[in-house]
Amino acid sequence: MHKYFKERRIGKLVLLSLSVVIIALGFWFSGTNAYKFMKGYWLFKTGEPKTEVAFADKPVKTADKTQSSPKTSLYTERPQKGEMIGNLSIPKLSADLPIYHGTDEDELEKGVGHFAGSVLPGEKDNSVLSGHRDTVFRKLGEVGKGDLLVVSTGAGEFTYKVRKVRIVDADDRTVIVPKPRATLTVTTCYPFDFIGDAPERYILVADLIEAIEQE
Known about the structure:
The protein is of the alpha+beta class. It folds into two domains: 2-44; 79-213, Sortase (Sortase, Chain: A). The protein is 24% helix and 32% strand. The chain contains four helices and ten strands, in the order H-H-E-E-H-E-E-H-E-E-E-E-E-E. The protein has helices at 2-30, 33-46, 69-72, 105-108; strands spanning 60-61, 66-67, 84-90, 95-101, 112-114, 126-130, 148-153, 156-169, 183-190, 200-213. The strands form two sheets. An eight-stranded mixed β-barrel has the order 3-4-5-6-9-10-8-7. Residues 27-71 have low confidence and may be disordered.
């Protein structure tokens, strides 16, 4: 009988020790890069960033707060798919390119496409532009950190400075995640001289440094 109770006591101590270890690992996981890695992996696999951008007069949900769209938006009307919304100027390339709302082939054949799930240029958060590497963005590889990107729309003129250049897999959706400040993300296929469907994407991440709003 004494041996039975002793074994039970040892078993309880083992379970208690395992519980403490599991709890400690939980705190470590939530407070380190391991959590960020798993969150990024989930986003990569599902393509579902935890954000919602609305193009109507209703609250806009960002990563950590909700703001009212009608009073804070730079734009009185949201664009329709296929509508030209402005121009992208790249001083480094002496290029001036039309921007269309949407990133289907119809828009990309005419110029630069604005990803409809992102905010409009000049607004806080991440505005995403895409274009073909063999048409509008065939020289985009010459643009890098420190270069300027200027977007002109009906709301004003917005100047961005490239902060980072990334090369990612073609199905990497992290380029569309929300940003804490006004950001312009420009993407195209990579490598530029690849024949067929390119396996990667060339990404420019630029921060808004000047905004001249239309009065």
